[in-house]
């Protein structure tokens, strides 16, 4: 491991902890070991151990190193905030720094590059677009409510499909609900682009961005401008996890009240909500998920990629929020993910699950073929309750996509 | 927060240039048959039966009538019998057996048997044929074959030069590519102006509201047109767009002309007064026609005959010279005289310089201007910044990143966000409240070309 400072003595005799050296040599996964030990020490409130581990991690961590060093860096930050009870402040600072360092150009480049090298997001787009097109086939007035932060990268292919697939091109109204302030700040750049593109495609188009929401729970049928004669599709990409845990059921009810023809859901496979009162469990799950994510990023991007760096930084806020912010409701960016089967259980109270058609599955398989190896599609188990599909990275399910009808 | 509701209702198929893989062009909707034709309704079984055409000599069956006729020749029939045995007195059209289908009704019957067979298969049949490369499925074997030949071989090229082998990534890229902004800025301008009318003078005459994405309205007029590109003469295309499309464009262009006048832009008084009713543009859907009619009066009282003359590649200069509008229109046509596709940027610069102080420049310099917006300069008077709007107003990338970083506790937070080197362009002042001529160029830049920082 390059760049690690090894000048300090290993105090293994005093603290009883393995020295970083031995950790590295044995299996190279020192970061998870040290981080877990630190988390344990925190939950046990063993302050000298905490200090020691924090110090060690600080020495070894780096956002520019390998996966271990990166994980150590970002998780260390969260642990530090937890230990010093400064999670909220840190979170706010991270947000403001991110806002300042991002522009439309940089975010656009980032998202497009990510989509080019990894199907992490495009998987959900293809699945959802396919389901939406099929569910709204034959309708003349479409209204898609897009609750996501995808910067509308999902929609060009849908617009193209609308233009080329049907004999009569329907009218499409797209209402985008943005949930992060960073994306919100650049949506004014997206609006003209989407409109122009729709014009180019020859699709009658109406576009609207809803922003300024403090949290998704504020959405109502009226504020969304839903009309009687429209065929509604509600598209939720990474949206549910941003709803406060206690309000999720109510949120689904609100969606149901819109009377959509189809609801498409895409979320990441991690359970950070059922364990939210158990720090260690939550920590473990968080570490597990981001270990996969960082590994995926490393394998997908070129080694010196700036975009990868930016994506990794984006994780820092989420990690701090989950581990160090103790469910403060006011920042509204809770990002407490749940697994597909958990979402399914809740969604089933308001909707009926629908499977993906063979055509859509084919499209997804074709999509995955275009990326590097390591990705695959897992279809729902026969006879199971959950009809959603999973994208897996190295056999680990990472993204869940599903379709629901009223 | 205000919500933006922008209503755009365009009719489909306004596309005149096709850099994108062509949108399926709508011929007359299939199945508008001759009312005198005889309507045949075959059952699915009969429809799918092959070899309906039987040779009366040997009984051999063929899928198509043509094949049968070819076969019959081989029987060495005497001349008389060589003719078709049944003269087709009435044309026959076929309906789709599927009741829910739009082509089930006789008024939408399809004209030939092969057509109805394929339709039935495609729409209502099982998709048995699958492409290996992309997993796309087809019900009709010939469709599948045709697709397999081209699957993966096709390359898509964006205006910005990037090439894609995947259509979906091409499409997504194109939607966000700034090259797209150039092409359709003029089209956008028309409808935007329509919506933003009501006293809002804060926009380009031709382009969309100021913003980096509404850059270079005219750049693609000067953009080298490669042979693989559209089949429309660039001037016409540019003008076509500029004139707006359909009545919406006409009205808004007309209105803007009025507003220009109100803004006190020096124009020959003849211009506005002679301005007849909405521009007559009858060639929106047929860009290849050379007979646009413009009644747009550029300072001359053009009769419709004279207007015809204008439909040639470029406007005769003498019609425009006396126009005192710092008219991009006029100068663009001057530049376009040579009309050759590949005018270099340097040549354009020189031309622009020749035209004089009234024509501000960077708007012609398509790609240059582009870079301009990416390298913001803090000079407020920089007309480059003016023309292209500011950098996204939202990107206040300042040097205060560092100071906020010092707030972060302890641990090498600085590593996470190395100071960003971008400066922001303080262009907000310029984009609001100042008088705009139709170029969207601030008056001061017209009057003080020297402030153009070396563009000219």
Automatic annotation (TrEMBL), chain A:
Region (Disordered): 1-28
Motif (VHIID): 142-146
One family name in Pfam for this protein: GRAS
Residue ranges, annotated region (VHIID): 111-176
InterPro entries per the UniProt record, alphabetical: TF_GRAS
The entry's keywords: Transcription, Transcription regulation
The keyword Magnesium is annotated on this UniProt entry: no
Superkingdom per UniProt: Eukaryota
Residue span of region SAW: 324-405
Keyword Transmembrane: no
Family as reported in the entry's similarity comment: Belongs to the GRAS family.
Protein name: Protein SHORT-ROOT
TrEMBL record, chain B:
Top-level division of the source organism's lineage: Eukaryota
UniProt keyword annotations, A-Z: DNA-binding, Metal-binding, Repeat, Transcription, Transcription regulation, Zinc, Zinc-finger
Domain C2H2-type: 53-75
Family annotation (InterPro entries): C2CH-3rd_BIRD-IDD (IPR055187), C2CH-4th_BIRD-IDD (IPR055185), C2H2-2nd_BIRD-IDD (IPR055186), IDD1-16 (IPR031140), Znf_C2H2_sf (IPR036236), Znf_C2H2_type (IPR013087)
Single Gene Ontology BP annotation: regulation of DNA-templated transcription
Example GO molecular function: DNA binding
Protein name: Zinc finger protein MAGPIE
Phylogenetic lineage: Eukaryota, Viridiplantae, Streptophyta, Embryophyta, Tracheophyta
